[in-house]
Amino acid sequence: MRKELLAAREAVWRAWYGNDRAKLEAVIPEETVAINPAEEKWHDRAEILASAREFAERGGKLLRLEYLRTEIQLYGDVAILYTTYLVEVESKGERETVNGRGTEIFIRRNGIWVNSGWHLDSGR
Q: Residue 90 needs a FRET pair 20 to 30 A away by CA distance; which of 18, 76, 98, 105 works?
């Protein structure tokens, strides 16, 4: 189960950074709520899809994605992942590395894990 959840989580992150709309639509349900670092506004599914597109339109590329620590709480078809992460991206020739913490909620629907919400912060 752990391996399946970790693969699902990684697929969501890579789909966002790669602007894989079909994958995102499959794994981000309508009711998703996302809280991102340094952003006051919470995001819904449409805003998540738009932000992935905007990242790609700015020439954004994922260079490195690491999960430094992950703890999982499993409650039947609901899983909560607590994690620390490192992301390195490049956009318009500039590289940026971001470290943070995250809490992600996954729900198993029709045999696949979908990401129904997350709260990411800088860890500070």
A: 105
